[in-house]
Amino acid sequence: MKQQKTLESWTGPLRTTMGGCFPGERAVFRGHDLHADLQDTDWLDLYVFGICGRRHTAAQIKVLHAIWVNTSYPDARLWNNRVAALAGSARSTGILAISAALATSEAAIYGRQIDIAIADFLVRARAAVQAGRQLAEVVAEELQVSRGIGGYGRPVAKSAADERNAIVLGLAEREGLAGGEHVRLAFAIEEILLAGRWRMRMNYAAIAAALALDIGLSPREYYLYMLPAFLAGMPPCYIEAGSRPEQATLPLPCQAIIYQGPARRPWSRALG
Fold first, then answer.
1. 96 vs 232: CA distance, rounded Å
2. Cβ of 116: how many Cβ atoms within 10 Å?
3. pTM (2 d.p.)
4. Engineered SS bond to 106: which of 97, 112, 130, 245, CB 3.0-4.6 Å?
């Protein structure tokens, strides 16, 4: 009954504060005329404005651009790019290929789930330290509960430094945005993890989240901002797969599979 009343109160014209399209006249984007006020806006600037409802400085947009650019790897062996490549190999359409590849980017080890997890932890850790707790204690507690901290301990190349960190951090330094509280906290956490038995280095997810939080994004805003972060690397994988013969991308002969399950058996007719 309560749900029915709630739905009834929302019947009629769609009420929105986000914007609207008035064909033949104009379009409104978060209260601004898209074609008059925002016509020259950088696309990322517009995208982040759509998420946050507030504008960012040129330096902040430059750092946010760099976070996207430096993780755009056109390598079809990567799990999500492989989806785009296999779709190209199967002669699927581009939008289906890229949409599926982006959907698989919401992964628990490398992708978007890690993004929101580390952003959330940095916010909680900062609040805990401000409340008087020792950071080492907060880190140990998180490890005990979650058995890991997203953004630390790269699943591949565990002992090597993440090649993206120095690049994006250097650009942030040049823009005067590398000394924020979350960035300092991210490095302090790495110091604890390297000194302990965990030996986990900070990877790109942690430094990118810290920079974005210092720019003012919330964890949810950061997650939404990062949705297309891998996008630029996907079309090359799709295009190259499409240039090969059909099914010729990552083919795997049955003989290459080491199978140790039940032996081959015939189908049995179902008894009626």
1. 15
2. 19
3. 0.90
4. 112
Residue at token pair 């297309």: 228
Is 56:64 a contact under the CB 8 Å cutoff?
yes
Other beta carbons within 10 Å of 68: 18
Is the CB of residue 177 less than 8 Å from the CB of residue 215?
yes
Token pair 């901002």 is found at 225
Pair 235, 94: CB distance under 8 Å = yes
Angle of helix 165-174 relative to helix 204-215, nearest 10 degrees, comes to 20
The arithmetic mean of pLDDT across residues 69-85, rounded, is 97
CA distances from 63 to 57, 153, 172, 177, 215 (A): 10, 24, 6, 8, 9
> In the chain, which ranges are continuous DSSP H helix?
2-9, 43-52, 58-69, 79-89, 94-104, 112-130, 135-146, 165-174, 181-195, 204-215, 219-226, 234-243
Amino acid, single-letter form, for residue 25: E
Mean pLDDT score across all residues of the chain: 93
The candidate with the shortest Cα–Cα distance to 223, out of 115, 77, 149, 79, is 115
Residue type, 243: S
Q: pLDDT of 132-145, one tens digit each? A: 999 999 999 999 99
From edge to edge, which strands make up the β-sheet containing 32-33? 19-22, 26-29, 32-33
Do strands 32-33 and 26-29 pair parallel, antiparallel, or not at all (unpaired)?
antiparallel
- Which pLDDT does position 154 carry in this prediction? 80
Longest dimension (CA), the chain: 76
Cα–Cα dist 152/185, whole Å: 13
The number of beta carbons lying within 10 Å of the beta carbon of residue 201 is: 19
Q: What is the pLDDT of residue 155?
A: 72
CA-CA-CA-CA torsion sign (99, 100, 106, 109): negative
